[in-house]
Amino acid sequence: MKNTVRERGDYPAYGDEKNGRAFTCLTDEKSLLPDMKALLKEFYIATFMEEENALFLQFNYGQRFKITVKEIK
Predict the structure, then answer these.
(1) In angstroms, rounded to a whole number, what is the distance separating the alpha carbons of residues 61 and 47?
(2) pLDDT value at position 24?
(3) How far apart are CA 68 and CA 14, in angstroms?
């Protein structure tokens, strides 16, 4: 699933507030992971590796993390 934009009514956060409509961006796990990786690279110096719905980080001093992404419905 690619990132998609859908129209929702009665949500005044952004969009066409005058008419009571707004637009929201929908995504899936596989599309969200590269975005998270790009954001984390701005703040941390580490080795990054993507695998299925997980992002692995390893810092130079050995500390490792696994970040998983799953949509909650």
Answers:
(1) 11
(2) 67
(3) 29
